Amino acid sequence: MADVRNWQLNRDMSYPYEGNRPDRQIAYIFDTNKCIACQTCSIACKTTWTSGKGQEHIFYNNVETKPYGFYPQAWDVKLLDMLGQNDWKKDVYAGKTVFEAAPEGERVLGWLPQEEDYAAPNIGEDVVAGQIDGGSFFMGIHQAWMFYLARICNHCTYPGCLAACPRKAIYKRQEDGIVLIDESRCRGYRECLKACPYKKVFYNMITRTSEKCIGCYPLIEKGEQPRCVQTCIGKIRLQGFLSKPGEENPENPIDYLVRIKKIALPMYPQYGTEPNVYYIPPVHVPREFLGQTFGPGVENAIKVYKSAPNDKDLLAALLLFGNTPRTLHAFRADKDEAVGFDNTGAEVIRVPYTEPFFARDFFDGKHEAYRHNTP
Ligand code: SF4
Ligand code: SF4
User: Fold this and answer.
1) How many domains does the chain have?
2) Which of 56, 95, 213, 214 fits 60 for a cystine, CB–CB 3.0-4.6 Å?
3) Smallest-distance ligand from the CA of 152
4) Cα 331 to Cα 33: distance, rounded to the nearest angstrom
5) Which residue has the higher pLDDT, 1 or 268?
6) Sheet (strand 237-242) strand order
7) Could you tell which of 28, 229, 236 is best to mutate to test the pocket of ligand 1, judged by most ligand atoms within 8 Å of the CB?
8) Residue 187: which of 171, 160, 165 has the closest Cα?
9) Residue 197 lies in a domain
């Protein structure tokens, strides 16, 4: 085991390999407040990458309703239980990571899902926490809560899957940090399924190899955002690249939102893999639940998120979500518009702060036609 720095835990931790951060790290921000669970992302991904035989249960992207949605069944609560006490002392993680809690002779603490754990991808969908009493009605504030959690592979800085593979078939690309499986080396031992804390590696029973999200690397190499990001109906997603700790660039929207404004947080950072999908937490959910899911930065993240209407730069970064297929490397606020730039510095998107409003005349004199059915 080597000592590596995990900035999300604010401390060093043990990892089976030496730390080697990529030149730039693929990263995503998902705004949970905007997701409507339409599952367009899940289907866009599935029809692109996993529509073959043996892939029926494979969802590189899925969206589950928290607190009762899971895919596979109980994926997170099971590991939280195994990990035991996972407390924070302010912003330093005081518990053990999945690497530090690994049993004797193993590299990662984990568990292997069984076939039946994949039987109900939409279990718990739209189920709220708590009880709704008979006769209740909506009075402006909901009496119970739930939220939609969109999930993909986190392309972790310290991947559990990679650490556990006895064949060294899993690798992390130096140029963008995407984590891939070399199918020709894989022998289907499923150690990666067992070790991934997010259960984002799947086993294909036809090819007898493991498969996982490939970060849509053919699109990334063209300077475009992945399919799940481009197709998102709710415009909840932004993909870009996170700089190395200490090298943050305030013009980079990912650096700005994750490291400077700290509005987007990793999911279950206590697992220790340094995941690179960052979530803007849902503002209406009990803080205790959010603290366990997204770590100690929740209160600040929600406070900053709510201040967005009065912060032009922050608003600019948030407005760029879901508005261009291009991967954005820089952004700025320009009067009343948010502007995004690609890797060459060319402007690729301009979004107004307020949507323009056009009202057409009720009667079109030129064509002598009414524009509405009812005059
Ligand atoms: S497409 Fe977007 S809004 Fe729809 S479920 Fe996926 S993440 Fe949520
Ligand atoms: S989320 Fe799982 S599959 Fe993806 S890199 Fe991390 S450990 Fe590997």
Assistant:
1) 1
2) 213
3) 2
4) 22
5) 268
6) 237-242, 25-31, 277-280, 265-266
7) 236
8) 165
9) yes
The ligand that comes nearest to the alpha carbon of residue 275 is 2
Predicted confidence at residue 318, as pLDDT, reads 98
Token pair recorded at residue 211: 């498969």
Q: 33 CA distance to ligand 1 centroid (A)?
A: 11
Q: What's the rounded Cα separation, in Å, for the pair 171 and 169?
A: 7
Within-domain flag for 371: no
- Token pair 């415009």: residue: 235
Q: What pTM was computed for the model?
A: 0.95
CA of 147, nearest ligand number: 1
Residue 321 Cα, ligand 1 centroid: separation in angstroms? 12
With a 6 Å cutoff on the Cβ, whether 156 touches ligand 2 is yes
| Residue 159 CB–ligand 2 contact under 6 Å | yes
Residue matched to tokens 């990571």: 97
Say which CATH number the domain at 54 has: 3.30.70.20
Alpha helix (H) residue ranges in 6-147: 40-49, 75-83
CB 193 within 8 A of CB 199: yes
Is 290 part of any domain?
Answer: no
d(CA 48, CA 216): 9
The verdict on residue 26 lying in a domain is no
Cβ 26 under 6 angstroms from ligand 2: no
Confidence label for 348 from pLDDT (cuts 50, 70 and 90):
very high
pLDDT at 373 over 90: no
Could you report the per-residue pLDDT of 177-233, keeping only the tens digit for each? 999 999 999 999 999 999 999 999 999 999 999 999 999 999 999 999 999 999 999
- Per the structure, the complete domain to which residue 117 belongs is given by 34-222
- Ligand 1 centroid to Cα of residue 120, in Å, is 19
> Ligand 1, residues 59, 233, 278, 279: which to mutate, most atoms within 8 A of Cβ?
233
What spacing in Å lies between the alpha carbon of 40 and ligand 1's midpoint? Answer: 6
Residues in a beta bridge with 344: none
Cβ(332)–Cβ(339) under 8 Å? yes
